Amino acid sequence: MFLSRKLLLPWRRPNQGAQALAGRLLRSSSSLSDADDDPPFTRIPKRLPRAPSPPPPKPKDLAGKIRPDEPAHSDLPFDFRHSYSETDPAWRPIGFREPTRFSPFGPGRLDRPWDGVAAARGGGGDGEGGERSREEVLGEPLSEEEVAELVERYRHSDCSRQINLGKGGVTHNMLDDIHNHWKRAEAVRIKCLGVPTLDMDNICFHLEDKTGGKIIYRNINILILYRGRNYDPKQRPAIPLMLWKPLAPIYPRLVQNVAEGLTFEETKELRNRGLNSPPLTKLTRNGVYVNVVDKVRDAFKTVEVVRLDCSHVGTSDCKKIGVKLRDLVPCVPILFKDEQIILWRGKMQCGTRQGWYHANLSADQRKAYSFHMQHHLLNKKVMCYEPTITGHSFERGIAGSELSDGKIEEL
């Protein structure tokens, strides 16, 4: 019985080719008869029809409007600028590279008019009230133990609460970044690089003045900005953001064809002498320039012309360095060529106690230097000798936000 079944099975097994042919015939016949097929019931579809999708929202219903219903308002008691530390309100441009009607805050997004340089605040601000509120936010001064604890927590390079300050200096949007860090941290670490490091006092002044915080640590180019004991993130000031960086205005030429007080031949001789002299120092791109001003001042005690090698720094940064050195040293830039800066100390008159000063400074340079010195002397009482400008000694005491000049003595 078993043997007979084994013999019959191979003959009963269907052929694979015949099966494939039969399947093709059945599929073709079913497709032909689908048009004539009319069953007495409705076939259930395999997938239910999808619900109609809602129409896309109209542009006017979107949350982020280009032009809001009402412009933003801020009670901050200062004019809004792209950079606070790298621009001087005393400098007036002679032209603009873009129409002044284009505000970097966006069309209709700020209630302050934009004049091409700054968005001026209204006349209703009260500087004394803002100063009192800042003192209330800071609270009692920190003890030495508290300062040491904060410094140890935030001074290291792997600190997560760090803001990098570049060639733009203290910018407007950086103020918002600082307050965002202050939501979850008592202090923020600020690392400064590039042209602004020529004047670290100016950076510290604007950081404290614009944010309301206090610098509790300063080491070369590293700062730690403390928010205050009574700081409340829910009561932080409203800071409208700049949507783009405005184009820099056009200012008068930094280097004149003929230096003031010299002839063309004398100016040409000074330029050639500076190009052929060894460089005083070599500056790198985005470096730390905290000691450059002192080096130039010391060099001017023995030489008349100084050359700074700024290879790979960039033409724009070279001019910014020249402008800062002109006001800080002070000196006269006479040539920018092939990323080399040639500085002339100007006409000198000798005297006692560092008694040398420039007799050929213009009125704008004197005004810029005096504005810069106010920033340096704020919240301090120091004896500042300014023989480079007037040949006098000034004792200035600061009480709150007022600047008072002491008596003037001849050197």
TrEMBL record:
One of its GO terms (cellular component) is chloroplast stroma. Keywords: mRNA processing, mRNA splicing, Repeat, Ribonucleoprotein, RNA-binding, Transit peptide. It comes from the Eukaryota. InterPro entries: CAF1P_plant, RNA-binding_CRM, YhbY-like_sf. Residues 140-238, 260-356 form the CRM domain. SUPFAM superfamilies: YhbY-like. Residues 58-85 have a biased composition (Basic and acidic residues). Gene3D superfamilies: YhbY-like (3.30.110.60). GO terms for molecular function: RNA binding. Its main location: plastid. GO terms for biological process: Group II intron splicing; mRNA processing. It holds the Pfam family CRS1_YhbY. Residues 27-142 are annotated as: Disordered. It is found in: Plastid, Chloroplast stroma. PANTHER family: CRS2-ASSOCIATED FACTOR 1, CHLOROPLASTIC, CRS2-ASSOCIATED FACTOR 2, MITOCHONDRIAL. This is CRS2-associated factor 2, mitochondrial.
